[in-house]
Write a structure and sequence with these properties.
single chain, alpha+beta, Alpha-D-Glucose-1,6-Bisphosphate, Chain A, domain 4, seven-stranded antiparallel beta sheet, 5 helices, 7 strands, elongated, START-like_dom_sf, membrane, transmembrane, Polyketide_cyclase/dehydratase
Length: about 180
């Protein structure tokens, strides 16, 4: 019986130590985060920009949108213009519920959107798409997301290697965009 108690206390101590280490690492990490990915597309800059600025086109390249194409979606305003609002609601927990609004556009160069998550958790981020000429009819497109994380989200980011996963999803989406536009 004493051996069982020793094992139980050891396991509880180990779990407690892991939690304390995670808390310390999360507290020491920055509240702000930024993740960027980019790809070169064999199309002129204006063509790439005109495609990306239309949020409905995310159906064809965004890994996250493509996860549940049957999600309930609403669109308010003129797509591709500041103030356009795209909302989604899905039973799929990987998609959840949220909205994306075009905040600003620098014609042919940059689009900034605000993304707000409602379910399965509340949060938000700013997403920026920037296009630059890459020469010979090619375009470099950069996608950057940035936001703030509370202590619990910082712990979650550490435990799940979330920045690495988000970056991989962004890279996959950009490669999908490249494939669509280069057809």
């Amino acid at each position: 019986m004493e051996l069982v108690l020793i094992i139980v206390y050891f396991i509880l101590g180990l779990i407690g130590t892991i939690i304390i280490i995670l808390l310390i690492a999360a507290a020491a990490s920055s509240e702000d985060y930024t993740i960027s990915r980019e790809v070169v597309i064999n199309r002129p800059r204006q063509e790439v920009f005109d495609y990306v600025r239309i949020l409905k086109n995310q159906d064809y390249y965004s890994k996250w949108v493509m996860t549940d194409l049957n999600a309930q979606r609403t669109f308010t305003g003129t797509d591709g213009q500041p103030g356009f609002l795209y909302t989604w609601d899905s039973d799929n927990k990987q998609v959840g519920q949220g909205e994306q609004e075009i905040k600003s556009i620098k014609e042919g160069q940059q689009m900034i959107t605000n993304v707000r998550f409602i379910k399965p958790f509340e949060g938000g981020l700013e997403a920026t798409f920037t296009t630059r000429d890459a020469g010979q009819g090619q375009t470099n497109i950069n996608w950057t997301i940035q936001g703030k994380r509370n202590l619990m989200m910082r712990m979650f980011h550490i435990m799940m290697s979330l920045p690495k996963k988000l970056g991989a999803d962004m890279a996959e989406s950009l490669n999908n965009l490249k494939r669509v536009l280069e057809k």
